[in-house]
Amino acid sequence: MIKLLELLKEMSANATNIAPQGVIFLQPNKKVLVGDNHHDPVELSEDLFDTILKIGRSYGYYGEGIGIEHNPGVISSKIYKALVNTKSTYKGSWDKRIEIPEKEKYVYIATLFSNPTENKRIPTLMGKVEKGDIIFDLLSRTFDDYTEPGLGLGANDLKKFLEEMSEQGIDFIKLSKQPATKENLQNFVDKGEKLMWPKVGWEKYPNKAGKLVRRETEIRDKWIIKNSPPGVYFIGSGHLIDISKMTGKKIIGGEKIGDGSSAIKK
Fold first, then answer.
1. In sequence order, which ranges of the chain are alpha helices (DSSP H)?
2. How far, CA to CA in Å, does 73 sit from each of 43, 78, 174?
3. Which end of the chain is less congested by CB atoms within 10 angstroms, N or C?
4. 262 vs 98, 113, 190, 258, 259, CA distance in Å?
């Protein structure tokens, strides 16, 4: 039994190309995308770990969304701790570097429904509720709390987005007219998240809400493919499927892409 355990341990240590949430090398030894699901630690085999660490030490590393410090999955990972311990340069969120087309800014409202648990969406918004608020009032006043700050969005943008995502008997305009209570807001966000990220076939974006979020993620995917400088990029693992299709680059590992989605787990 002891010998078997030692053999299994040796086999595990010698394993290569292990990355359950996926890895894509956009430029060999210069630019790499490391998939994560925002709450589970990133797992990497030693060969990938060493290569990614070397890239990070040479070119720095980037977080996603509101910043790597808000991503418990990444910051609990060995690769992140190694980057910090080797004094690799953290260059902030890569999302902050994207120039968003004016006509497409409203689709960034989709981030309201993306990883709401991990981003503490409900408690953050409930902290901004004013007396007499309905959900629409709250959301039209707090864009910077749930989308990319500084987009200059207004009530008309929110109305347009909610109208375009409504389907399957779910009228988000009607729902947004409910009082801004914790229960109502949670129900509102849950319904949107489940339409964007259904349990089956989420990667095909089958619903209107999914098609809106795909427009948002496509802006981000195109930037990271064409305009991002060399470095290590921590990125929601679902992006890797689309980026692989767009570039023809192979996903290393990736067998758990989608398994950690908070929407799919509900």
1. 2-14, 46-59, 72-75, 78-85, 121-126, 135-141, 143-146, 155-165, 172-176, 182-196, 208-226, 238-247, 262-265
2. 10, 10, 36
3. N
4. 26, 11, 10, 9, 9
**CA angle in degrees (0–180, nearest 5) for 104-108-109:** 120
CB atoms within 10 A of CB 113: 24
Say how many Å lie between the first and final Cα of the chain, rounded.
39
Dihedral in degrees, nearest 10, Cα atoms 265, 70, 228, 147: 80
Domain ranges of the chain: 19-98+220-265, 102-210
Per residue in 49-67, pLDDT tens?
Answer: 999 999 999 999 999 988 8
| Amino acid of residue 109 | I
- Asked if 228 contacts 247 with a C-beta cutoff of 8 angstroms, the reply is no
What is the per-residue pLDDT for 117?
85
- For 29, residues 6+ apart whose C-beta sits below 8 A from its C-beta are 51, 54, 55
Residue, of 11 and 21, whose pLDDT is higher:
21
Q: In this structure, how many other beta carbons lie within 10 angstroms of the beta carbon of residue 218?
A: 15
Q: How far apart are CA 115 and CA 39, in angstroms?
A: 10
